[in-house]
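Subject: for your reference before the review

Hello V.,

The reviewers asked for a structural picture of the protein, and I figured it would be easier to keep everything in one thread rather than splitting it across files. Below is the amino acid sequence we used in the manuscript, unchanged from the supplementary table.
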Amino acid sequence: YHGSLNQIKFVISKLKLFIGTDSGLFHLASALRVPTIAFFGQTLFSRTGSYVETSNEISIDYPCRPCKSNFTCPHVNCLNLINNQQIISTIDYVIKKYEKKFNLNN
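And here is what came back from the structure prediction:
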């Protein structure tokens, strides 16, 4: 998407759920109080995540997290080993938690 920051802010503010990575768009959605789910691989939610209640993470405990290879990891298993069931469970959890507040069931 190649819009201005105000345009991106507008689009994100209309979302019922944001799913993305630990990125600027995740932090913007979080700041706008949109329910968010972010994938955290090399970074830790406790360090770079959001303190907003509606923010949620998907990650796994992996021995080298946070990244000890200066982000030049040859395998990125901290992301590659996240399984589909973990993703689905997190999405279900967030929808159930916020469905009434944010009308997520429609």
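For the response letter, the relevant points are probably these. The chain is about 40% helix and 10% strand. The mean pLDDT is 88.

Happy to draft the paragraph if you're swamped.

O.
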